[in-house]
Design brief:
644 residues; Rossmann fold; alpha/beta; elongated; seven-stranded mixed sheet; six-stranded mixed sheet
Length: 644
């Protein structure tokens, strides 16, 4: 018979509850709560020309000194403030009579300034000027007749790149307002002095039907991610919102509202005089996937694309449905509600030629916890070109071996769906990265189950268990399993291999009252006990109902897992967090630990490599040293495959 807690015990538990509330505040600050924003709209889009051309000055946009010098030499300066659009025609006449890189550049700059000045009063005229600026910046950069006058060390060269990018972006904004910025479409735009026939074409991974809408990266400011993963070059970085395809097998792994990075690059295929005497340009606006391609070839030149991988990621993380699925407290206290959204997720396109890195979050967490590491790892071209990142989301309220069994099924199911013929060799070089309890789930994918695990449930044979066939099959899979042959390397971070003192009598009591066990597990336990009286002993792990209980230092399952030999063909790597401080509080409660897991518990004596990072448990996998170590290991993994 269970005794009611005394008054002193209740007071102690209330103090513990207050501590947990403070802990929740810490979790919110570290993982991002529902009302936090990963990317916020800017008041004014970011523009590298803002200072150079004084776009925000009271007198309006102004040309640079060298362009002013060109205007003075040709007695054109007086037109600047009176008729900026007409000035473009005059500068064009000079360039036609004296073709040079400098004069063509001047057309681009003056046209851009003219567009800015007439944008509000005459949008059509502004579009004409933006198109003129983009085309002439393109000619300055790529027309072979200007090779002798083009100097990549000249500040004008980079400014020409900015003029091309900003003029193209402004022109694309006009197309977007008219509903014409859609891949797979062809349009003609007839302006006052020139005409454009352009095709908008998807290039690389994504197809036309994968684009729901396009947004401009320059409209957003990333807030929650520390590092901005961008590259300078030509083109307009965009956020593309993914459009699910019901017939695509991989769509089930993409989260609702997923966004992906795109760079728009305008290529002028041909230019010539039309029947009306105006110049007609045939163009292709190419939408490139920067995860697949970061350079384009133009007129024999290898040209880097302007890219931004971080802003589309941040925009995707702000999707309300994605946020609801990744509330850490729901996954802890209401596991059943989280089951519907649990499973493997991909935040980038599936590629059968890239090695999966599967990231597994820990206790009271979600896949969002990996975004700092994910964002930083993708900044490496070698990582980006050879790896794809998957994330396992699961409810953290239940015992870790339940989640490990579900994780095992998810990996098998993903392989069946993505590669039914098992022809994708890269999928057999999988790397698992687990933080905290996620490290235990990862380790359990590499070992063999059997009687040594089942005996912790019952000393009786599983064959004698009376249960519905489906339930019995689930139990068999949970305790009798083989190592996943596709897993080839494991990285564990701050994992409690020997339990955590965080799991104690008080927290276990609180956990049983806060964590709602899924009904299907409750009903399954009830069925087993009713049909099999005396089958399960008092200390059976079946009576462990929460993750808090399962992580106790005295946990039989943890001891058994710690005793299991690691497969020789799977290298293990380990990262330990340790709080370093002279604070009396730290010395009293977190000495030689990360605040949650003792160093001795996180130590893996069989690891091929192991480092200690000066960080607490919640942030250790976000620490630069931890990210650099994961990067080193992934590159080492690539090196080990070169001779195969």
């Amino acid at each position: 018979m269970r005794m009611q807690p005394s008054r002193n015990e209740c007071q102690s538990r209330l103090r513990l509850l207050a501590t947990c509330v403070l802990g929740l505040a810490t979790v919110c600050s570290n993982f991002g709560c529902a009302n936090s924003r990963w990317a916020r709209m800017r008041t004014v889009p970011a523009n590298p020309l803002a200072m150079q051309l004084e776009l925000d000055s009271k007198q309006g946009p102004q040309p640079t000194d060298r362009t002013l010098q060109m205007l003075r030499r040709n007695d054109l300066e007086q037109h600047l403030d009176v008729a900026p659009a007409r000035l473009v025609s005059h500068v064009q006449e000079v360039a036609y009579s004296e073709p040079s890189a400098d004069n063509v550049y001047s057309i681009a700059e003056v046209a851009y300034i003219a567009a800015k000045r007439v944008e509000e009063e005459s949008p059509a005229r502004a579009l004409d000027m933006y198109a003129t600026a983009a085309a002439n910046a393109y000619f300055y950069l790529f027309d072979k007749s200007f090779d002798y006058g083009r100097n990549p060390y000249d500040p004008r060269f980079r400014r020409a790149c900015d003029l091309y990018n900003e003029s193209l972006e402004s022109a694309l904004r006009f197309l977007q307002k008219e509903g014409k910025l859609k891949p797979g479409t062809v349009h003609s735009v007839d302006l006052e002095e020139q005409s454009f026939d352009f095709e908008i074409a998807a290039r690389g991974t994504w197809h036309e039907q994968n684009f729901s809408e396009l947004k401009f990266v320059s409209d957003f400011k990333v807030e929650e991610l520390k590092n901005l993963n961008q590259r300078f070059g030509l083109g307009v970085p965009l956020v593309a919102v993914y459009e699910p395809q019901t017939k695509s097998a991989v769509d089930r792994f993409y989260p609702i509202g997923m966004s992906f990075p795109v760079t728009a690059f305008m290529r002028i295929v041909a230019s010539g005089a039309a029947d009306d005497g105006n110049v007609r340009h045939r163009c292709v606006i190419e939408l490139h996937d920067p995860l697949k391609k970061q350079n384009v070839v133009v007129e024999g030149q290898n040209v880097p694309l302007e890219t931004d991988l971080t802003t589309p990621l941040a925009y995707s993380l702000d999707n309300p449905a994605f946020k609801r699925a990744n509330v850490p407290s729901r996954g802890l206290t209401h596991p059943e509600k989280s089951l519907a959204v649990s499973g493997l997720y991909m935040l980038e396109p599936y590629d059968p030629e890239k090695i999966p890195v599967v990231m597994v979050h820990g206790f009271w967490s979600s896949l969002v916890t990996w975004m700092e590491m994910f964002n930083d790892l993708r900044s490496s071209s070698e990582i980006r070109d050879n790896y794809q990142f998957w994330f396992y989301l699961y409810p953290t309220g239940g015992p870790f071996w339940y989640s490990a069994s579900h994780f095992r099924d998810q990996l098998v199911d993903a392989r069946r769906v993505l590669d039914p013929q098992r022809q994708a060799v890269a999928l057999d070089e999988m790397v698992l990265v687990g933080h905290s309890m996620g490290g235990l789930l990862s380790k359990m994918q590499t070992i063999r189950g059997g009687d040594h695990f089942w005996n912790m449930m019952s000393s009786n044979s599983l064959e004698g268990l009376q249960a519905d066939p489906n339930l019995k099959s689930q139990i068999r899979r949970a305790f009798y399993f083989e190592p996943n042959p596709s897993v080839r390397r494991v990285i564990t971070i701050a994992s409690p291999f020997r339990g955590s003192n965080f799991s104690n009598v008080a927290t276990q009591w609180l956990g049983r009252r806060l964590i709602s066990e899924p009904d299907m597990i409750t009903q399954a336990r009830k069925q087993l006990l009713e049909r099999n009286p005396g089958f399960f002993p008092e200390d059976s792990v079946m009576h462990i109902t929460t993750s808090v209980d399962s992580l106790a230092p005295q946990s039989r399952m943890l001891r058994r897992l710690d005793e299991m030999p690691q497969p020789e063909w799977i290298p293990f790597h380990n990262i330990i967090g340790r709080v370093e401080s002279d604070s009396r509080v730290v010395k009293a409660f977190a000495q030689d630990s990360d605040g949650i897991v003792k160093t001795q518990s996180a130590h893996n004596p069989d690891a091929e490599s192991e480092i200690v990072v000066p960080s607490d448990h919640v942030n250790v996998h976000r620490h630069p040293r931890a990210i650099l170590e994961v990067k080193r290991i992934l590159l080492e993994h690539l090196g080990s495959l070169e001779g195969l």
